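quick one, 138 residues, struct below
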Amino acid sequence: MSLPALDNLVRIGQLKAEPRNVAEARRMLAMARTSLADARLAALSPQGRFTSAYNAAHAAALAALRWHGYRSENRYTVFQCLAHTLNWPAPRWRVLDAAHQKRNLAEYEGFLEVEEAAIAELCALVADLIADVAKLLE
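---
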């Protein structure tokens, strides 16, 4: 399913157009569900739970992108494309973009400060994301 806004991103090299791969999208959604379950494990450190929630968000958002026939090599683009792949309003996908920025600080600078409330908010949003992607794949 071609989307004009995403086709524009293909033209400028931010996305790649590829045939829809439903099996790949379903595998990514399954990974998202597993990572979200991990994020909800109280025995994990806050950093581990945040990372699992972030990975769940990325896998689910990428599943939506793949279902539409696109791929991105940039993690932040996957979240921004939710405006087009799932019609998510900016306030929703920007929470995931903020999580991406926190993830980058952790990965590249060794700094991650995350509160329990932020993890809970992220998990709730990721659960909604997974549900929306599941509807798309039905």
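The radius of gyration is 15 Å.
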